[in-house]
Amino acid sequence: MSSTFGTLFRVSTFGESHCKGVGAVVDGCPPNLELSEADIQRQLDRRRPGQSKMTTDRKEADQVTILSGVENGRTLGTPIGLFVPNRDQRPGDYASMSRTPRPSHADYTYQMKFGIRAASGGGRSSARETIGRVAAGAIAEKVLAERYGVQIVAWVSAVHEVPAMAVEMETITRETVDQSAVRCPDPIAAGRMMTAIQAARDAKDSLGGVVACVCRNVPVGLGEPVFDKLEALLAHAMLSIPATKGFEIGSGFGGTLLKGSQHNDPFVQKGDRLGTRTNNSGGIQGGISNGESINFRVAFKPPATIGQAQATVDFDGRDTVLEAKGRHDPCVVPRAVPIVESMAALVLMDCVLRQAMRCTGSLRPC
């Protein structure tokens, strides 16, 4: 089950970076949902390579085909099969690396775990695996938006040493985010980020960064104490994305600098429900959504595959110098934005269904 995520809304991804194609099987999608390939393609277009000089120049249209689970434009409640072909494959780029594990990559650990690995492009450890996640997440997001009004928006909040200014999380939109190739809504910071990424690319190096995300209009009551707390599920989802190295929610690590009197979120009346005046909790208390916007941040390391010569050893322990070939992102965070959104949607959709089990004959949380 290592390639399956979720309890009731389950997603199994398949495929390697240089095989014939990649995709996903989605089980648990409610029936009678209007769904077309165009609904899924929008997010895949935001994830695909070759969008700008900020990304790898691998040319892939990433056109999705719905293989099953939909008839006459409506879901049947049966497993939905999704497939995206790999068109621009160049496994020959990796021939020289088949004998040498790339530093900080998954080559060594996959070889040790399975005794074999896909030597071209990283196989399942490649970010190409995330196509299935994004396609499945687009379906989850459509259900969440239409039936519950949930809105999920992610953006780049930092690249290397360049942070963005504070963002108004209650009004930010994907249209605002996508105005910049680096997907940062702060135009001044975005320009500096693009300059830094281009400089790293020219130097055959790479940069890390941070993706922030907000989930608005999340129903109260999502999350399952004690081991499936909502923030734990989100952390699990985000840290399963390739190249992630950190997760924080609400005040995060910065909250450790505050006193309890500063950090507590006092309750206030908001319409027909209780809400909080501040949101240091990040929309989750006791592992359960409280109706406030959920906000979190995900740290991405610099991509491991770089073109610079690196002194290392091959699988036999012999000294060698590796100059990696192939086409790779100098910074993954711009393309990680829709992946973060999709994984958030998968978590929330699964939690909605788990909560709905408590309400007979309804898909609405209690």
Can you lay out the helices and strands and say which pair or pack?
Elements: E1 4-5, E2 10-14, E3 21-27, H1 37-47, E4 65-68, E5 70-71, E6 74-75, E7 80-85, H2 107-114, H3 130-148, E8 151-159, E9 162-163, H4 174-177, H5 187-202, E10 209-216, H6 230-239, E11 244-249, H7 260-263, E12 267-270, E13 273-276, E14 284-285, E15 288-289, E16 294-300, E17 310-313, E18 319-322, H8 333-356
Antiparallel strand pairs: 1-2, 2-3, 3-7, 4-7, 5-6, 8-9, 8-10, 10-16, 11-16, 12-13, 14-15, 17-18
Mind explaining what this structure looks like?
This protein is α+β, with helices and mostly antiparallel strands and 366 residues long. The relative contact order is 0.18. The chain has helices at residues 37-47, 107-114, 130-148, 174-177, 187-202, 230-239, 260-263, 333-356, and strands at 4-5, 10-14, 21-27, 65-68, 70-71, 74-75, 80-85, 151-159, 162-163, 209-216, 244-249, 267-270, 273-276, 284-285, 288-289, 294-300, 310-313, 319-322. The chain is built from eight helices and 18 strands. It has one domain (4-356): 4-Layer Sandwich (Chorismate synthase, AroC fold). Helices cover 26% and strands 22% of the residues. Helix 1 (37-47) packs across helix 3 (130-148). Strand 17 (310-313) and strand 18 form a beta hairpin. The strands form six sheets. A five-stranded antiparallel sheet has the order 1-2-3-7-4, covered by helices on one side.
